[in-house]
Amino acid sequence: MIKIENLKKSFGKNEVLKGISTEIKEKEVIAVIGPSGSGKSTFLRCINRLEEPTSGKITVGGTLITDKNVLKVRENLGMVFQNFNLFPHKTVLENLIYAPMNVKGVSKNKAIEKAEDLLRQVGLFEKRNEYPNRLSGGQKQRVAIARALAMNPTVMLFDEPTSALDPEMVKEVLNVMKSLAESGMTMIIVTHEMGFAREVADRVLFLEGGYLVEDAAPEVFFNSPKSDRARAFLDKVL
Ligand code: ADP
Ligand code: MG
């Protein structure tokens, strides 16, 4: 589904991604783990071209994404950020129907129907007419997930979706992500939630210093990482 070949990205003289290659299959759930500043967000942002790669190739579903119009690339890739990024002056429902109507040309009725289904799925149907500032962090993030799903993406990208949440709200967001994974969605998740990565991910990518240091099944990564760097990282966080 996604093929990444020798992906490099520099900001000025700072080479942040130093040649990353991996493949992600349909329905795979990938956890991207690593210390702060290791290039995790940049990696994710290159996949949906919020950053332009300096070199290397990324294909999604067989299409080279650097050849495509940016909006076309993003239609297939849902993205969820740490800080929700909801439209503050739109209601929950309006947040969900905006892109389907304005980017994809879906009719208002169809967009609302789909949005309401998704809000039921994330447990927030009753909040459909609220504005984001009336919601808790966990509710905002569930709206953000539903909004990304409203575009019918083939892949969902998450950048530390629970890092800005109060601890008691982490679980409700992880549960939504877990059921999405169980429904067969292809997902790439940058996370510090090691328990979640271990339980839900099919594979862990461990980044450090711009290198993909490990690419392994969770039970292998967490129980017997092959690199000293991954072991040192796990010693700190577990
Ligand atoms: P992580 O998500 O793993 O914490 P990032 O991908 O955000 O790491 O950042 C990796 C490095 O790239 C950091 O040194 C950061 O300062 C740098 N960086 C990220 N985005 C930019 C940018 N837009 N301009 C300049 N430097 C950036
Ligand atoms: Mg980051």
UniProtKB/TrEMBL annotation:
InterPro entries (alphabetical): AAA+_ATPase (IPR003593), ABC_ATPase_HisP-typ (IPR030679), ABC_transporter-like_ATP-bd (IPR003439), ABC_transporter-like_CS (IPR017871), MetN_ABC_transporter-like (IPR050086), P-loop_NTPase (IPR027417)
Superkingdom, natural source: Bacteria
SMART domains xref list: AAA (SM00382)
Domain ABC transporter: 2-234
Keyword Transport assigned: yes
GO MF term (any one): ATP binding
Key words of the record: ATP-binding, Nucleotide-binding, Transport
Pfam families: ABC_tran
Entry annotated with the keyword Acetylation: no
PANTHER family associated with the record: AMINO ACID IMPORT ATP-BINDING PROTEIN, ARGININE TRANSPORT ATP-BINDING PROTEIN ARTM
Name of the featured protein: Amino acid ABC transporter ATP-binding protein
Protein source organism: Ureibacillus galli
